[in-house]
Amino acid sequence: MKMLCPQCGSALPPEAINIATDLAQCPECGRVSRAAACVVEDEISKDVLRQPPPGTWLRQEADAIVVGATMRSKAAWGAALFTAICGGISMFAAYGTQIIDGKFDPFRTLFGIPFLLVTIFLVKTTIYMIFGHQEWHLDEDGGSGFNGVGRFGKRWRFAWNNLTRIHIYTTRDNHGNTSFKLILEGISPELKISLPECKERQQFIINAIRYYHQQWRRWK
Predict the structure, then answer these.
(1) Which sequence spans correspond to the domains of the chain?
(2) Assign residue 153 a region: left if phi > 0, alpha if psi is -120 to 50, beta otherwise?
(3) Is 80 helix (H, G, I), strand (E, B) or coil?
(4) DSSP state of 47
(5) Per-residue pLDDT of the chain (220 residues; tens, 9 = 90+)
(6) Rounded distance between C-alpha atoms, residue 103 and residue 155, angstroms
(7) Within 10 Å of residue 99's Cβ, how many Cβ atoms?
(8) Which fold, 1-41?
């Protein structure tokens, strides 16, 4: 366990922390912070990365380490069934009947547009829940990431020297659905990335990023 400066992310030596006054001064950036606000971070061993859990991977490329995980969810097949039934019924009622009748009906066409948009959204969400994946490319300067399906999705970049804290934020909506986001603090704007539903995949990704961030701090 160690204390990190909340301003620059540097490790704080014991002599920089005064528990009695609740103050800590970073020897790297010189800023004074409340000791209680300094982040306590577990030291990550490379051993935890040697056996990626099912649905995750780690490989070495030319100039980067690639860490990834599938975003596949247990609810994916239920979502696929719901989308097929509800989307199929609404599309048939709005447009299929027109094709069968061989007659264009402006009212049914306009009435079906909201259902068409909802069906498109459900199809996209279901495809992501089945085929989505997340990858992080980590190099000596920082890294980049991707979250999506195929070539379509969200992309981002970050630098190690801006990163001060890495943690998971959990939210629960009014329907009891839980979502998990990986928060990279210190980056502007703060980076919030959706994580897989599976706890093992979540922990593997966050351990990998923390490990290589700790390695960067040793090298700098």
Answers:
(1) 1-41, 46-72+132-219, 76-129
(2) left
(3) helix
(4) G
(5) 567 777 676 778 888 888 888 888 888 888 888 887 676 666 777 788 888 999 999 999 888 999 999 999 888 889 899 999 999 999 999 999 999 988 899 998 999 999 999 999 999 999 999 999 999 999 988 999 999 999 999 999 999 988 878 888 888 777 777 788 998 888 888 889 999 988 999 999 999 998 888 888 777 6
(6) 45
(7) 10
(8) Ubiquitin Ligase Nedd4; Chain: W; (2.20.70)
Strand, helix or coil at 209?
Answer: helix
**Model's pTM, two decimal places?**
0.76
Read off φ and ψ for residue 205, nearest 5 degrees. -65, -50
Pairing verdict, β 165-172 and 152-159: unpaired
* 168 within 8 A of 195, measured Cβ to Cβ: yes
Phi and psi at 20, nearest 5°, equal -60, -40
Residue for token pair 């547009």: 113
> In the CATH scheme, what architecture does the domain 46-72+132-219 have?
Roll (2.30)
